[in-house]
Design brief:
The chain is mainly alpha-helical and 273 residues long. Helix content is 60%, strand content 5%. It is built from 13 helices and three strands. The chain has a three-stranded antiparallel β-sheet with strand order 1-3-2. α1 packs antiparallel against α2 and α1 runs parallel beside α3. It is flat and about 110 Å long.
Length: 273
């Protein structure tokens, strides 16, 4: 009785190992042709007469299902390689080592198709150019009716510049320190992983305030109070404040980043928030 059970126990173990190998191929951990399908089918045939109960038949059916998947992957692998005219690198290396230098040169010359471009000014091109220049209005005629407005020079006061929002009524260093602290607070509230979306920081109730904040933020980055991180795939810009100002931006060559702060961008941000 014990001997009758031995083939079934051994068969179950072999089928379970076959399933594990098939799963490794299906999950791209192993190449499809590492499994010899003919040998595996012989194993399945050998133990199939021993199966009697539903659990054993289920294991046999599961093995066949995984084998069918591997066969399909092998077929797709062959189709892809044949379509791409794939050549095994070791086989290609062996062929190159067998032929001589002169034969390699001859093959290269047969396959080499240099591109040559020849440009010259033809009579037709010259005639078109002359017609173009003759059709142009002379500069003396073009500017004849243009009247330049006279502009007088004058001085303005600091109070007037502050009123026009060219200058702030605060000292620049104090204004930067205040903005730096505001950036830290914004990261603590809205940020993630020590950074915050650029528009979430500079965005304000009005477009004018947004532009002014973006202008001051550029100095935060230039003077080493913060840094920008650009996700080109998602087209997002993040700003990260430093705990202590860094002097590297002032002593090393850094890349300039242009960020659009158009009124359309501001409206989109305003609608989203």
């Amino acid at each position: 009785m014990q001997r009758a059970k031995e083939p079934k126990v051994l068969g179950k173990e072999r089928l379970e190992r076959i399933i594990e190998m098939c799963v490794a191929i299906e999950t791209r951990q192993t190449e499809p042709f590492t499994l010899n399908i003919d040998e595996i089918i012989q194993v399945v045939r050998e133990y199939f007469p021993h199966w009697q109960n539903p659990e054993e038949l289920r294991l046999d059916a599961e093995t066949l299902h995984h084998l069918a998947t591997v066969i399909k992957m092998q077929s797709e692998w062959v189709k892809h390689r044949s379509t791409a005219l794939y050549t095994d690198p070791f086989l290609l290396e062996g062929k190159i080592m067998q032929i001589g230098k002169q034969e390699i040169v001859d093959i290269f010359l047969q396959a080499w198709n240099p591109l040559i471009e020849f440009e010259q000014v033809s009579l037709n091109t010259l005639a078109q150019g002359l017609l173009y220049w003759e059709a142009l209005v002379p500069i003396s005629e073009k500017w004849k009716n243009f009247e330049a407005a006279e502009v007088s020079n004058s001085y303005t006061s600091r109070e007037e510049l502050i009123k026009q929002r060219v200058l702030s009524d605060k000292e620049f260093s104090v204004e930067l320190s205040t903005l730096w602290q505001e950036l830290k607070d914004c990261v603590a509230i809205k940020g993630k992983e020590g950074k915050v979306n650029y528009w979430d920081f500079i965005g304000a109730d009005t477009y004018e305030q947004t532009v002014q904040k973006a202008f001051l933020t550029s100095f935060l980055v230039t003077y080493g109070f913060a840094t920008l991180e650009i996700d080109r795939l998602e087209e997002l810009v993040f700003i990260t404040p430093f705990q202590n100002p860094r002097i590297e931006p002032l002593t090393q060559q850094s890349a300039s980043v242009a960020i659009s702060v158009s009124i359309d961008d501001w409206r989109k941000w305003k609608e989203a928030n």
